[in-house]
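Intended use. Records such as the RlfB protein entry shown here are meant for training and evaluating sequence-to-structure methods. They are not intended to support clinical decisions.
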Amino acid sequence: MLNAPLNLTGHNEPDVFDHLYPFFEQDFITVDTYINNQIYVDPKGQGMRDGKEEVFWHITTREKSKTVKQGKQMVKIKTRPFDPDRAARISWIKPMLVNHSDPCIKLFYRKETKGKKPVRLYFWAHQHDFVVIVQKLGNANSFLVTSFYITETYKRDSYEKWYTEYTQGNKPELLNCEWF
């Protein structure tokens, strides 16, 4: 179901984003994408930045933070540099959403722990260490929160734990939370 990751050799910032955007545009702008043929995935659900949908930046970059000294204070600076591991898998997102019942996808719901975030739907291509996260907007709409390649073992362990908690019904806040 999932093709080989894109070969991004020879592409650097900022031209790599122009190279990647047509993949996103083809899957989410030109043709509408639906989960289970009923939940529309709105590519503009998070707004626009630099002429591209905000979520495009989330699926091609990764937040980095570092602490630097400014005067007498230490200040945390956040950036979002290009992430080749995420970006090379941009063409996996739509197939994972529309083919969520494929055995290579572990689908589960999870209530976020930060703030008052609602339950989100996770699509985990567990054999490929790739995750897509979607949040629902109303009855029949959703937005793509992000997608990313899992690079740390402890993160993989967390996804396995969350998948097991959902499938075994161990989290009361997830009972009857399904969208379809």
